[in-house]
Amino acid sequence: MRMIFGWIGAIWVLISLAWVSKLRFGGRYWQWRVATAFPDGRHPAGMRGMIVDGLGYARWAWRMRRMG
Fold first, then answer.
1. Which residue from 14, 1, 5 is spatially nearest to 57, judged by alpha carbons?
2. How many structural domains are present in the chain?
3. 41: alpha, beta or left, given left = phi > 0 and alpha = psi -120 to 50?
4. How far apart are the C-alpha atoms of 17 and 46, rounded to whole Å?
């Protein structure tokens, strides 16, 4: 059950980030986020790996929000 809430929380984090950035995924925030996450400009595992890593980040962010 705890894992299910973790995934729901991760999805919520991604939705809230999308909402705050006004769905401008090509905007300055997202360009900065991608540049800091992948300094060479490409993710070594391709699109699937970027999705998996993005969900991993969202789960971590959800856990950090719950601690504070």
1. 14
2. 1
3. left
4. 22
- Short-list 54, 47, 62, CA closest to 7: 62
* Residues of the domain holding 53: 2-67
Low-confidence stretches of the chain (pLDDT < 50) are: none
67 vs 4: CA distance, rounded Å: 18
Residue type, 3: M
pTM, entire model: 0.72
DSSP designation for 1: -
pLDDT at residue number 13: 92
* CA distances in angstroms from 15 to 41, 42, 60, 62, listed in the order given: 24, 24, 15, 12
Residue 56 to residue 63: CA distance in whole angstroms:
11
